[in-house]
User: Fold this.
Amino acid sequence: MSADTPATTPITLVEEQLAAVKFNSDGLVPVVTQDIATKQVLMMAWMNAETLRMTLDEGRMVYWSRSRKEVWRKGDTSGDRQFVREAFYDCDGDTLLFLVEQEGRGACHTGEVSCFYRKFG
Assistant:
């Protein structure tokens, strides 16, 4: 890891907390990813049980690509990596929130910082 690469922050795996996460019928849970410094919502994606464990263990965001049906470690291709700083699950256990340090141009495949750059009205 170079000197300018952010350090990873693995999150301790607590089985009781992981068991509280409710995956849908496809084995997926929605994930909102937010920039820890600006609080801007960067993207929404999906995780399965495996990618949730990988994310918490590695301290880097790892999603499940529904279109490619494969593990998708954010930034492996683009260089726009996301480093976990905090992780939450909601009161129902059916949505996850990750606060990250975003590296590179941003989170969106279009080159925008956030996937939510288009505004109604």
About this structure: Helices lie at 15-19, 49-58.
